């Protein structure tokens, strides 16, 4: 009996040493080396670390740019009380890192895992390669041309709502309007669903509940990043925010799974009766493609796979596109001269192609000034402020030795406002 107990204790001790103690010691040695060679972000909080107390966009921008000015190349960034990363804020250091093809930092994405599942954003390796190859059929030139009619339909609804305001001079919150617009576009293109979300007033309608659920998932996840005490996956469901998150994920999945089952059933019925098919090849939406595409082994995507990809499209496109539209409206208002030039160019292209009805995908390239304007909007607004990556192999970044497995933050915002990259980075031009 004593021999068995000794063996058991030895095995447990070895597991603790290999799985817990050794990684902690390795992390500690690396952290001490990095801390001794790289400055630390000022104002570190004992619990939040370098994370800001206020998640407002203006506060985050001010904080990032202030740190980049104090530490123009790199600095240590603390995620909570113990997790540290190397924050890269210079074009040279970021270029050095990107040349190594670093991997995704799973910690950043794990909070979205219950919602996004194994979508492209979350997967890696062979699964990512296979799914990416299958989904490439969605973004062929013919498919992109077919989506233009859906863009125009959603935009017409959006403009109609703005023109119907009782008091045109009154201030309105455009954030909700643009979020519904981008949601409507993605639903039309990805799911072939006329959600009427832009005009829907019933908060209990399926489409409105789906829209609200997705907004809750994103908002609660971003809030969780700023609250280290909610990072533990076992404890999070016991928090009020964790319960709301689980309910929102469940609501989102139920809606998308219902649409997927309906469409799969419809396609199976059409396969049995070819004459009943009402969809031309170039009229299929993303959901049709995902349900019918096959790999070299004849295997397709399951309903769960498709649900995860649709959720990923919504996450990647809804808020980012909405934010870009909001900032575009802002800068057009702030710069009437630029607004007039954009307006003149759009009218010229529209006149040449026969108006809105005649405008097609190939006419987009003719809007050169508008394209430059949008690029400057994305630089100044910086919709995605940073990327987090994991070092794949031992390397040296800006003179600092970084063992494999450590994490770096690539500050896109710092580059967008860098004096080395732009003559006058704080001026919209």
Explained architecture:
- The chain is an alpha+beta fold.
- It is 58% helix and 7% strand.
- The protein is built from 15 helices and seven strands.
- The protein has helices at 2-37, 57-70, 91-98, 106-110, 113-116, 125-135, 141-163, 174-191, 206-225, 240-272, 286-292, 303-334, 336-353, 368-381, 412-416, and strands spanning 74-79, 83-88, 103-104, 386-390, 395-397, 400-402, 407-411.
- A hairpin with a 3-residue loop joins strand 1 and strand 2 (83-88).
- The protein is globular.
- The mean pLDDT is 83.
Give me the secondary-structure topology.
Blueprint: H1 2-37, H2 57-70, E1 74-79, E2 83-88, H3 91-98, E3 103-104, H4 106-110, H5 113-116, H6 125-135, H7 141-163, H8 174-191, H9 206-225, H10 240-272, H11 286-292, H12 303-334, H13 336-353, H14 368-381, E4 386-390, E5 395-397, E6 400-402, E7 407-411, H15 412-416
Parallel strand pairs: 2-7
Antiparallel strand pairs: 1-2, 3-4, 4-7, 5-6
Helix pairs in contact: 7-8, 8-12, 9-10, 10-12, 12-13, 12-14, 13-14
Q: Using only CA atoms, what is the Rg?
A: 25 Å
Would you identify the regions where 5 or more consecutive residues have pLDDT less than 50?
none
User: What summary fits the major beta sheet?
Assistant: 5 strands, mixed
First-residue to last-residue Cα separation: 79 Å
**Beta-strand content:** 5-15%
Question: Going across the major beta sheet, what is the strand order?
Answer: 1-2-7-4-3
Give the helix tally.
15
* Derived structural class: alpha+beta
Q: In percent, how helical is the residue content? A: 55-70%
Quick one: overall form? Answer: globular
């Amino acid at each position: 009996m004593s021999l068995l107990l000794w063996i058991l204790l030895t095995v447990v001790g070895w597991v603790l040493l290999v799985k817990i103690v050794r990684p902690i010691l390795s992390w500690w040695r690396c952290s001490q080396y990095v801390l001794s060679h790289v400055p630390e972000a000022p104002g570190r909080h004992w619990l939040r670390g370098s994370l800001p107390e206020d998640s407002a966009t203006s506060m985050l921008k001010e904080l990032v740019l202030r740190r980049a000015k104090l530490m123009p190349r790199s600095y240590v960034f603390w995620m909570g009380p113990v997790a540290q990363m190397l924050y890269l804020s210079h074009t040279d250091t970021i270029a050095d890192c990107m040349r190594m093809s670093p991997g995704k930092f799973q910690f950043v994405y794990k909070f979205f895992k219950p919602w996004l599942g194994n979508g492209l954003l979350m997967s890696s390796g062979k699964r990512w390669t296979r799914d990416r190859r299958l989904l490439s059929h969605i973004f062929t030139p013919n498919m992109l041309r077919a989506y233009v009619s859906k863009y125009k339909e959603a935009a017409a609804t959006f403009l109609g709502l703005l023109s119907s305001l009782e008091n045109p001079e009154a201030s309105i919150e455009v954030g909700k309007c643009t979020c519904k617009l981008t949601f409507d576009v993605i639903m039309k293109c990805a799911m072939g669903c006329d959600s009427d979300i832009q005009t829907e007033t019933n908060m209990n309608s399926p489409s409105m509940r789906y829209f609200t659920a997705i907004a809750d998932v994103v908002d609660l996840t971003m809030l969780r990043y700023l609250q280290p005490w909610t990072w533990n996956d076992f404890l999070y469901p016991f928090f009020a925010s964790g319960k709301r998150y689980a309910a929102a994920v469940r609501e989102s999945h139920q809606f998308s799974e219902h649409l997927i089952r309906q469409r799969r059933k419809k396609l199976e019925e059409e396969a049995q009766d070819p004459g009943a098919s009402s969809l031309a090849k170039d009229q299929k939406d993303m959901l049709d493609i995902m349900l019918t595409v096959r790999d070299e082994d004849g295997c397709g995507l399951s309903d769960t796979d498709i649900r995860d990809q649709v959720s990923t499209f919504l996450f990647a496109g809804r808020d980012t596109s909405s934010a870009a539209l909001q900032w575009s409206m802002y800068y057009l208002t702030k710069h009437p001269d630029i607004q007039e030039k954009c307006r003149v160019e759009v009218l010229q292209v529209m006149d040449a192609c026969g108006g809105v009805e005649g405008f097609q995908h190939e006419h987009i390239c003719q809007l050169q000034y508008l394209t430059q304007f949008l690029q400057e909007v994305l630089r100044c607004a910086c919709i995605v402020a940073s990327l987090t990556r994991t070092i794949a192999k031992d390397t040296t970044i800006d003179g600092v030795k970084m063992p494999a497995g450590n994490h770096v933050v690539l500050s896109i915002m710092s580059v967008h406002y860098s004096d080395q990259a732009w003559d006058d980075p704080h001026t919209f031009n």
